[in-house]
Specification:
One of its GO terms (molecular function) is metal ion binding. By secondary structure, this protein is of the alpha/beta class. The chain has a single domain, classed as Alpha-Beta Barrel (TIM Barrel). Helix content is 37%, strand content 9%. The chain is built from twelve helices and eight strands. Helix 8 (221-229) links the parallel strand 4 and strand 5 (233-234). Helix 4 runs parallel beside helix 10 and helix 9 (254-266) packs parallel to helix 10 (284-300). The structure holds 2-acetamido-2-deoxy-beta-D-glucopyranose (NAG) (3 copies) and zinc ion. Residues 10, 125-126, 175, 179, 215 line the site of zinc ion (ZN).
């Protein structure tokens, strides 16, 4: 269900946006003082990046260097999968069970799928886009941080929004270069997709992400092996807003997306685990839905980035950067340290009390 429309619609619509909207996000400036000191950036990239929205090439000196740094000897070794033009995996029955392919069986390995009880992993995929500044403006009003799973092609196109999010202390993570299903890529292509995205984020923000979400959730043990080699934790989700289906020509209404949020609010009291929720900063209407529904989530759950809910205060390779966590670990120093918004935590405490009365 997830795969069917999204492979086509996300990629084509996402690629339509950047060429016409390159500089619109520059108009929006951060409302809050920067938390992370990000490097100067002239507007011209020092590195050469692949064409946007195309599978990253593997024959460049950079990719050869990245591959040489990895030891793929002990990797699970099986061929890439194939998806058809409709965005569906071909011959799912022929995929061996021991590849732990999420697309076939929702198999997870060490992927993060949930946050702890009462916490809500707030995640927005497919940015940065021309719509991101609206979302960030809103999140900043309650000092709400989130994990942003960025597409490398969108990072180089909408780099102003990326720098703003980095500086404000959002949790920046990787969602491939071209948004193709990861299991369809060769080892070399997948490494190139991750490392080019990582390099663009490093060049713009001075940080190196260590969290990854596979487009469409499409991951197996070969991809997981490559991620481990590159120092990444993979994140799926346990609840899906299906907000991307509100795309033009899509099959989901805003009311249906709102209703899903209402259900998760109503169900909060009895759950022994928290959620990781899939949302997108991809279209105007997904950003609208995110903005409209977040306040009720904040009243019932403690919303935070995924790294925060698993108490990882150092979700970048630069371990001297510290972000706030659920347990409030603030072991770093300087401007990067930021506690969870007191107002959000207080609101959540009130809501938890309310929820136990059956709200
Ligand atoms: C690569 O990994 C294999 C299997 O773990 C190991 O035997 C080998 O020594 C490693 N090679 C290098 C160069 O680290
Ligand atoms: C929560 O659990 C209680 C006790 O089992 C039950 O009475 C109540 O209906 C449940 N509430 C929801 C929203 O599922
Ligand atoms: C933080 O660590 C990085 C290496 O990961 C280093 O280049 C940088 O200078 C350090 N910054 C500070 C402020 O110590
Ligand atoms: Zn995506």
């Amino acid at each position: 269900m997830l795969i069917k429309l999204s492979l086509i619609s996300l990629v084509t619509l996402a690629s339509a946006a950047p060429s016409t909207t390159t500089s619109t996000s520059a108009a929006s400036t951060p409302t809050a003082a920067p938390l992370l000191p990000i490097p100067a950036f002239s507007g011209t990239f020092a590195n050469a990046y692949p064409p946007v929205d195309k599978t990253a090439p593997t024959d460049t000196p950079l990719v050869k260097q990245w591959l040489a740094e990895l030891n793929l000897t002990a990797m699970p070794d099986f061929p890439p999968t194939k998806f058809n033009s409709g965005g569906d995996l071909e011959n799912p029955n022929s995929v061996p069970a021991d590849t732990c392919d999420w697309t076939v069986t929702n198999c997870i390995n060490k992927d993060i799928t949930n946050c702890p009880k009462r916490t809500w992993g707030l995640t927005y995929d497919d940015g940065p886009t021309e719509f991101s500044p609206q979302l960030y403006d809103f999140l900043d009003t309650t000092d709400q941080k989130a994990t942003l799973f960025y597409i490398g092609s969108n990072v180089v196109t909408n780099w102003q929004a990326a720098r703003r999010a980095c500086a404000a202390g959002y949790h920046i993570a990787v969602h491939t270069w071209s948004h193709n299903p990861s299991t369809t890529l060769t080892n070399e292509q997948f490494v190139a997709e991750i490392k080019y995205t990582e390099l663009a984020i490093k060049e713009l923000c001075g940080i190196t992400p260590t969290y990854f979400r596979p487009p469409y959730g499409d991951i197996d043990n070969r991809i997981r092996g490559l991620l481990v080699q590159m120092g990444y934790t993979s994140v799926i989700w346990d609840i899906d807003t299906n907000d991307w289906m509100m795309a033009p020509g899509g099959t989901r209404t805003e009311a249906q997306v709102d209703a899903a949020f209402d259900q998760w609010v109503a169900g909060a009291a009895n759950l022994t685990e928290g959620h990781v929720c899939l949302e997108h900063e991809l279209y105007q209407n997904t950003v609208n839905a995110a903005i409209k529904n977040l306040p009720k989530i904040q009243l019932t759950w403690k919303a935070m980035p995924v790294a925060a809910c698993v108490n990882d205060a150092h979700p970048y390779q630069e371990k001297n950067i510290t972000l706030a966590t659920l347990d409030g670990a603030q072991t770093g120093s300087g401007a990067a340290v930021k506690s969870l918004s007191a107002s959000v935590v207080a609101a959540a405490a009130v809501a938890i009390a309310a929820a136990s009365f059956g709200l």
